[in-house]
Amino acid sequence: MKIGIVCYPTFGGSGVVATELGLELSKRGHEIHFITYSQPVRLELLSNNVHFHEVHVPEYPLFLYQPYELALSSKLVDMVKLHGIELLHVHYAIPHAYAAYMAQQMLKDEGIFVPIVTTLHGTDITLVGSHPFYKPAVTFSINKSNAVTSVSESLKKDTMRLFNIKRDIHVVPNFIDLEKHTHSFTDCQREMMAEDSERIITHISNFREVKRIPDVIKVFYNIQKTLPAKLMMVGEGPEKEAAERLVEELGITERVIFFGNSNEIDRILCFSDLFLLPSQTESFGLAALEAMASGVPVISTNTGGLSEVNDDGFSGYLSDVNAINDMSNNALKILKDLETLNKFKANAKAQSQKFDLHNIVPMYETIYEETLKAFLVH
Ligand code: GMT
Q: Quick one: pLDDT at residue 134?
């Protein structure tokens, strides 16, 4: 099948999932066309069946805001016609499903019929749900898509509760390529980061408020009072400066490393002993799954879809949002001795196998086939 994939090309989980999905679909014989404003960060290699088409937004001084949706929908029309794309899979209701619907209507006018599969990733639903400016556009985009998927049961429930949805939503969980996370390194050079006696704690995110970065630091602060430990902070975002200040105020600068955005996530996870994700809300928590796939247990909140990913007492522990002491105690329970730590590491790896891409990607293929069939019948 010739599939157009529209996503945010950044370090965020939705872009990672869309990119990994496209790459796996291409291995399974599909022709994939990524259509977005820059090459997705994890899309390193283009090939004869993986293509990237950049959406340019021309600068017109007339417009206060440059209309990305307009540029995207025009590009979608052009690419569908040029490459014979049969189906569009868009990640995020707004603006992607919205733009895809416009493209679909323009193409229909020319006798070309292309169905739209929309995947909901969370922020479009949970943020828009509480700030309803875009509510009509989100509701419309979901209802007009030819198939809709959500990355967790929890996100499906939130979508049904917050919007007037008149259609079914399929839950297709995020997935992981376990081969990529089975360390190719025999040695990930742990000694460059910490002493043998120190435990390595890691957090990876886009440092937005929703990630509750101060909680990461407070939990780590409690851990290192009991055990020698180092904290690896990976990512960039609006909360980073305040986090650096908090680390200084707490007097733990020597123990915390801020990496910024990294393309070496696998190496960082390879030497990590524990992953912290104390988010306010998280539709899935792909970063937690990536950690588990590398054999790193997870201390997380129990919000949104996290309880569908992290198995409480097995692959890590779940706590209420803001329960700093509970999270700290749970972390210490895992880290207290090598035997317990190794048991949790093995469990984390086993839990991640439930999300093996070889089980999940065929779910998307089935949805594509059924959607295409139903769409062409009408
Ligand atoms: O979490 C973010 O800030 C990034 C956002 C995104 O668009 O990539 O992540 C959302 O989608 C991911 C992939 O499905 C999920 O793993 C994240 O849980 C979800 N983030 C939130 O719900 C806050």
A: 86
Q: What is the pTM of this model?
A: 0.94
What's the gap in Å between 287 CA and the centre of ligand 1? 9
Q: Where are the beta strands (DSSP E) in the chain?
A: 2-6, 31-36, 50-54, 87-91, 116-120, 147-150, 170-171, 199-204, 229-234, 256-260, 274-277, 298-301, 316-319
Q: Which CATH superfamily is domain 179-355 in?
A: Glycogen Phosphorylase B; (3.40.50.2000)
Write the class of the CATH domain 2-175+357-377: alpha beta
Ligand 1 contact via 19 beta carbon (within 6 Å): no
Q: pLDDT tens digits, residue range 74-119?
A: 999 999 999 999 999 999 998 999 999 999 999 999 999 999 999 9
262 burial level (CB within 10 Å; 0-12, 13-18, 19+) = middle
DSSP 38: S
**Is the per-residue pLDDT at 249 higher than 90?**
yes
Mean pLDDT within 130-147: 89
Average pLDDT over residues 295-315: 98
Mutation pick for ligand 1 pocket among 284, 298, 321, 355 (CB with most ligand atoms within 8 Å): 284
